[in-house]
Write a structure and sequence with these properties.
By secondary structure, the protein is of the alpha+beta class. Keywords: Ligase.
């Protein structure tokens, strides 16, 4: 299908959202009527002539979360098909389609990712094909391919594959095309500056170094820079700042430093280097020696036209830093695709995070909207509305019924309906939904407060202090409970200097507490919360969290530093790396 045909199909689907939604739900229920989960709530679902409207479906099938599927998913992972010995017809647990593998969720707040079953669904493939190919068509519309400059520097990692007890592979959703034997997708690798051996490597730090090295070797051929999440490019820039001399040496000599010990990766990168390149090395070295990191990406890659990454939600905090590195190069936003299903597409990809709007895809899944009260940081009841009931300006938690085994599933994303594109809702991503009613700050509250805190810190201390990363946790062992915020700054030694006296830091901490949002302020004023605790961490503390997450199964390509930590063992790791606490 041509790009014009794809874009036309997308456009047409948004013109009658309600009809497409009704057809999508009917298609899902007709196809999946024999699954065990649905038959628990819809006794007649197994009948061949089973028909049900959306209102009856919402009345009969309860809202669900991951825990409602955990037993079924564990049975699938173990290779079981039924839940009891007398289940003679071996009814399928969640889907009638064959199970292919499992995808990992990001699992950032708990460090233990969830398993998302991936079924071989023709219907789902059709829906996701339109979404993914439509997204690519939108990108090509803004940036038509250039045959003479046709490489992409992509910081992607296929991640390691694990296997369940039942023999099913487990991987990141983004890694599936890279690992799938049925879809080798060689054209994907052909357009990348890094060889396949780098993408399929097992050490993220080494892979990132090799991505940078191969990108610099092909500096004049790089058309675009791609990274799944903004934090990925920020980390790559930190590697660039600390390793640029070694990178220049490797290009000059045409060999790879001894740091990289993966033989296949080494051999493939040496082949990309193509022998000593002293002229290129000198050119790049001169750029670095100026120590001007503003616009560095366009200086190193003069033909790059755009940088693409997800920059909404918790990634929004990195936007200003990316703008600094990018200079005049446009930052292009990503789409709203979850591991469970595609949700919405970004048709205006050049907008900054604050103005990014996602157009919902009516055939990707059946969508419901659970009203959400930002002031209370919680949903309003258990009654959802469909697209006909949403109101512009209102906030909702997204609920999905998918082609792949989730029914009235709370996705955990809070969005604001800001308008309509034709008849399709336009969404603004607000935040991840709270896990419990005990949470006293939202991700949005924390990010806004930390942005102000950064400015206060610089003004009070009289020096440029850059907060590298931050997170929070509620200490329920304290009486009353206490919010703990952990920060890591770029130069940890500054914290120990005389200029950073405790009184100055305490003043900044007080300003931070005053910015933490209405939920926190109300409880603090009532005496239900102890004074805020602010801890400064050793350099590299958040890198340790990344390594811990990867060790626990979180894919490196999907890792997002948690803003609210709910796992006490993760808090313990941070506590071990505290320099000073106020």
């Amino acid at each position: 299908m041509t790009d014009d045909a794809l874009l036309k199909q997308l456009e047409e689907s948004t013109k009658d959202f309600s009809r497409h939604q009704a057809e999508t739900l009917r298609s899902i229920l007709q196809h999946q009527r024999g699954v065990r989960y649905l038959q628990r709530h819809l006794p007649g679902a197994g009948d061949h002539n089973f028909l049900i409207d959306a209102a009856t479906f919402r009345l009969s099938v309860p809202l669900s979360c991951y825990d409602d599927y955990a037993d079924y998913i564990n049975q699938l992972a173990d290779g079981d098909k039924c839940t009891s010995d007398d289940d003679h017809d071996h009814r399928h647990l969640l889907s009638v389609d064959p199970l292919v593998c499992f995808f990992y969720s990001s699992g950032t707040s708990s460090m233990k990712p969830k398993l998302i079953p991936y079924f071989d669904s023709t219907l789902s493939k059709g829906a996701s094909h339109i979404a993914h190919q439509g997204s690519a068509a939108v990108l090509r519309k803004f940036f038509p391919p250039r045959p003479e400059v046709n490489k992409r520097l992509a910081f992607i990692y296929a991640d390691s594959i694990t296997t369940t007890k039942g023999g099913f592979k487990v991987m990141a959703a983004s890694s599936f095309p890279l690992h799938s034997s049925s879809n080798p997708n060689r054209s994907l690798f052909m357009s990348l500056s890094s060889p396949m051996e780098v993408i399929l490597g097992s050490n993220v730090e080494h892979q990132m170094y090799c991505h940078l090295l191969c990108g610099l070797r092909n500096s004049d051929s790089i058309d675009a820079i791609h990274v799944p999440y903004a934090i990925g490019l920020i980390k790559a820039m930190w590697v660039l700042e600390s390793k640029w001399k070694q990178l220049c040496d490797d290009i000059e000599k045409g060999i790879l430093c001894s740091l990289i010990n993966d033989v296949r990766m080494r051999d493939s990168v040496v082949q990309v280097l193509g022998g000593p390149q002293p002229d290129l090395s000198n050119r790049i070295r001169l750029i670095f020696e100026k120590k001007d990191w503003g616009g560095i990406l366009s200086k190193l890659w003069p033909n790059v036209r755009y940088i693409r990454s997800v920059m909404t939600g918790s990634m929004k905090q990195y936007y200003s830093k990316l703008k600094y590195y990018a200079g005049e190069v446009p930052l292009v936003g990503g789409d709203y695709f979850a591991s469970e299903c595609c949700v919405a597409i970004n048709l205006d990809i050049k907008q900054p995070p604050d103005l990014t709007r996602f157009v919902m895809l009516p055939t990707a899944a059946y969508f419901e909207f659970l009203p959400f009260d930002l002031a209370e940081n919680n949903v309003v009841g258990e009654e959802t509305v469909d697209v006909c009931g949403v109101e512009v300006g209102k906030v909702y938690e997204v609920v999905v019924t998918t082609y792949r085994g989730f029914y009235r599933y709370r996705l955990g994303d809070v969005v604001r309906v800001v308008g309509f594109y034709n008849s399709s809702p336009l969404l603004e991503f607000v935040m991840r939904a709270p896990k419990t009613s005990n949470e006293i700050v939202t991700e949005g509250d924390l990010m806004a407060a930390m942005e102000k805190f950064q400015l206060v810190l610089r003004n009070t201390m009289g020096m440029a202090i850059e907060i590298v990363e931050f997170t929070s946790s509620v200490d329920f062992g304290s009486s009353p409970k206490r919010l703990k915020i952990f920060i890591e700054v770029k130069d940890c030694d500054m914290i120990l200097q005389d200029k950073l006296q405790e009184s100055n830091l305490r003043k900044c901490c007080s300003d931070l507490e005053d910015s933490l949002g209405s939920i926190y302020k109300v409880q603090r004023n009532k005496g239900e919360i102890s004074p805020l605790s602010l801890s400064v961490l050793k350099c590299g503390s958040f890198d340790r969290l990344l390594k811990l997450a990867i060790e626990n199964g979180t894919p490196a390509s999907q890792y997002k530093p948690p803003k609210i930590i709910r796992n006490p063992s993760i808090v313990d790791v941070l506590e071990e790396n505290v320099i000073v606490t106020i």
